[in-house]
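Re: beginner question about structure tokens

> Can someone show what the tokenized structure looks like for a real chain? I only ever see the sequence side.

Sure, here's an example I had lying around. Input first:
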Amino acid sequence: MDPVEQRDKRIRDLVNRPWKQQSLLEDRTKWNKLCASMDVIGDTQIAIKSYFSLPSFKAENGGYLFLYGLLQAFFLQQDAINHLSEVLFDKPINWKADYPDIYLVRELRNDSIGHPTKRGKDESFHFIARYSVSKGHFRLMSHYTKRNNSEFNDIDINELRTKQENSVIKILDTVIEHMEKEYDDHKSKFANAKLTDLIPGTMSYSIGKVYEGIYNDYPLAEMNFSEIKRTINTVKEEIIKRYGKLSALQGLNDVVRRIDYIMQKVDEWIQNKQLLNNDDAEVFLDSFSDRFKELEEMLNEIDEEFK
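And the corresponding structure tokens:
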């Protein structure tokens, strides 16, 4: 991968971190805009590289088509980066003030292939000299109405590529830096709050006492089951603080969904005085023990991530 593609991939990795992805998915319009922007950044980079791998050409054997395609790819890539910035930071890019090199590329595209027959309110008109079209160069003639004069500019296409790529890399590096800081700041909120610390050392004891309620009608089975429920609910609340929703982590969400169903059924049996000698309850508690071990492993992984 070239430097632009490497940065595009890094941004995708950061966007797809569960906590970030979940927050972005809250606004589907923004999410779709972001996905389209990331795709276009990569797609246009492929187009740009393809242009520079072409054999030499002139206007009569594809030159205009290739040139139009390259300049449009530059422009689309700029738009995609701008929309990426809007989604992630609610801030459009000021090309002229902050990235003058890429602004020149943008304006050249507008002059030469974007609106050559009418810029503004008949302010200027532009012509690519057919004889000048080549893989590395073309000449642009521009006539300005107010000044009533014409200018000729020899355009170095390799220089345009350098201006575009250097500016794109600079912008994407800034995006990555901001996103990594955002991630570090988010993690730091929970660095000293381990999820595994929420599980009391008496958890196994409480589960055992609920089992006793099946075997010999242990009178404190309900109290111990309430302690288990409290622990599970607290864990879920803390996961949501980190990720926005349980569904941000699909595997964990599946485990919690099963645990919730088990808890619901056992709670019904306890409330209806149907726990004693209940074979179904025994099977459900066996399943709970297995699912809870899975949950503990996942909590350890989350603690490692936020450490």
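Each token stands for a local structural state, so reading them left to right follows the chain. The chain has two domains: 3-188, 195-305.
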